[in-house]
Amino acid sequence: MKVDGKPTRTIWLESDGHTVAAIDQRRLPHEFVVVPLTTSDAAADAIRSMLVRGAPLIGATAAYGVALAMREDASDAGLDHAYAKLIATRPTAINLKWALDDMCGALRPLPAEARVAAAYARAAAIAEDDVAINQSIGRHGLTLIEAARAAKKPGERVNVLTHCNAGWLATVDWGTATAPIYQAFDAGVNIHVWVDETRPRNQGASLTAWELGHHGVPHTVIPDNTGGHLMQHGMVDLCIVGTDRVTASGDVCNKIGTYLKALAARDNNVPFYVALPSPTIDFTIDDGVKEIPIEQRDAAEVTDMTGRTKDGRIETVRVVPQGSAVANYGFDVTPSRLVTGLITERGVLLPERAALAAAFPERVERR
Ligand code: MRU
């Protein structure tokens, strides 16, 4: 996608051939800052601190983290150490494990002296694949948006509701939930996006709104509790969200609050779609509620809010009384029965084991 007219990805390799560069997403929308990652510790910190975030980008960053680790120690022990360090950064998005398994599978059979070059090449391939996958998700999702448009009166806009940021900032480029939106907008569809602010970290208000705005896509940021009201009044044609992990039976784990939107969508007959690349499928588990580890994050994300003051300073203020207990679950699980369809790079699938296994047989066999 473009930032100030310049094609930009969320992560890339610098011209020195080994430094990895990433957009610091903690500073958006206030400042656009690119951070060099030169060590595997820096890559791990970037994931843990949410300098980078979003399931596919976490995977790509971990892949580059392994490449950086191979520069530090390309032995088997070095590979094991890199895996252990990177896998411990965040628990919920399965793309992290997928990318680390992929990297280790490619590097382990090689002699140590061949591992640095091979690791950078494999990480670059993971990043490129992510871009191609998202473009394909966009093509399949576009048909759903076009169908929604066809059901409306001429000139009426198609209203999509999304939660969190499953946009290009959450991937290497294009996004998952946003790829169909960008393709529809570029094709001239009259589209408008309701953007859930997504407390506590405000990925919707800070990131999704920022990137939609840069692309010129009409959008409105709404407090998280607004979606049900909009659906009751016919103001949402379809929901499209991303996901951090989809089970073999189609349960969907995504940013906290997604489940409530899916319930409201079901109660109001609004289609609820989930966009995902195949590395987000975890074929080893079925029951998302029981089996997916839900990250619990720092209370400060709930108690404090950061923003720009009217005179231009960036400040953090406390919005919760001192002494109140705080809970900060990062994700929730939407059962497959509430999901209308899974928008993947191989088509729109029913959220069930048979459909997922038929579309991605190589993933089932690999596990
Ligand atoms: O905690 P985050 O910001 O990493 O959570 C991100 C999400 O929940 C996204 O919706 C999900 O990773 C899908 S990204 C294409």
Task: Give me the secondary-structure topology.
Layout: E1 2-3, E2 6-7, E3 11-13, E4 20-23, E5 34-37, H1 40-48, H2 55-72, H3 76-87, H4 95-107, H5 115-150, E6 158-162, H6 178-186, E7 191-196, H7 203-215, E8 219-222, H8 227-232, E9 238-241, E10 245-247, E11 252-255, H9 258-267, E12 272-275, E13 281-282, H10 288-291, H11 300-303, E14 304-308, E15 314-318, E16 331-334, E17 341-344, E18 347-349, H12 353-359, H13 361-366
Helix pairs in contact: 1-2, 2-3, 2-4, 2-5, 3-4, 4-5, 5-6
Account of the 3D structure:
The mean pLDDT is 97. Strand 10 (245-247) and strand 11 form a beta hairpin. The protein starts with a strand and ends with a helix. Helix 1 (40-48) packs antiparallel against helix 2 and helix 3 runs antiparallel to helix 4 (95-107). The protein has 367 residues and is α/β, with parallel strands linked by helices. It has helices at 40-48, 55-72, 76-87, 95-107, 115-150, 178-186, 203-215, 227-232, 258-267, 288-291, 300-303, 353-359, 361-366; strands at residues 2-3, 6-7, 11-13, 20-23, 34-37, 158-162, 191-196, 219-222, 238-241, 245-247, 252-255, 272-275, 281-282, 304-308, 314-318, 331-334, 341-344, 347-349. The longest helix has 36 residues, at 115-150. It contains 13 helices and 18 strands. The protein binds 5-S-methyl-1-O-phosphono-5-thio-D-ribulose. Residues 53-56, 93, 164, 166, 170-171, 176, 203, 242-244, 254-255, 330 line the site of 5-S-methyl-1-O-phosphono-5-thio-D-ribulose (MRU).
